[in-house]
Amino acid sequence: MPAPSPLPSYLYKILDTAPPSPLPARLPLSDLDRNDGFLHLSTSTQVPGTADSYFSDFTELWLLKIEYKVLADGTDADGEVKKGAEIKWEEVGRGCFAHFYGGDLGKGNVGEVVKVEKVGTWGKSLDLEW
Predict the structure, then answer these.
(1) Distance between CA atoms of residues 93 and 60, nearest Å
(2) Which domain of life is it from (predicted)?
(3) Is residue 4, in this structure, part of any structural domain at all?
(4) How many angstroms separate the CA atoms of 31 and 55, rounded?
(5) What is the pLDDT of residues 59-101, one digit of tens each?
(6) Is residue 118 part of a domain?
(7) How deeply is 62 buried, as exposed, middle or buried, from its count of CB atoms within 10 A (0-12, 13-18, 19+)?
(8) Which distant-in-sequence residues (6+ apart) come within 8 Å of 130 by Cβ?
């Protein structure tokens, strides 16, 4: 499945606990990301469904908002372009998701941290038009 067209302006990493503030140079990987060998990311339209599917028991989530171009350029957590760091669009279930290989997230590539509280379902609580 190909990348969406047009490409998104932002990608999001969903966290079930608050990240350190201020963001460190390198955030720890989730068990899922470590086991799969890449960072799982979502577009703004995918976040509500991903949250409902994988985080339904949580009442608050934190979203790391990352400029697409920053990761597409291979910018690592420290803000430096890392050789081999790249986004791959891969089919998962019924959608095509962005996966970031060869790099990490941290203060050098995350633009914003947003706390979101659940009201009803995540689909109803998340309206990301940023």
Answers:
(1) 25
(2) Eukaryota
(3) no
(4) 15
(5) 999 999 999 999 999 999 999 999 999 999 999 887 899 999 9
(6) yes
(7) middle
(8) 9, 10, 44, 65
Predicted pLDDT of residue 129: 53
Residue 130 — pLDDT band, cuts 50, 70, 90? very low
Residues 4-21, buried b or exposed e (16+ Cβ, 10 A)?
eeeebebbbbbbeeebee
H/E element, 112 = strand 112-117
- Residue 5 belongs to some domain of the structure: no
Q: How many CB atoms lie within 10 A of CB 37?
A: 10
Q: Total structural domains in the chain? A: 1
Helices (H), ranges, 1-102: 31-36, 47-54, 68-72
pLDDT average, residue stretch 95-113: 96
How far apart CA 75 and CA 110 sit, in angstroms, is 10
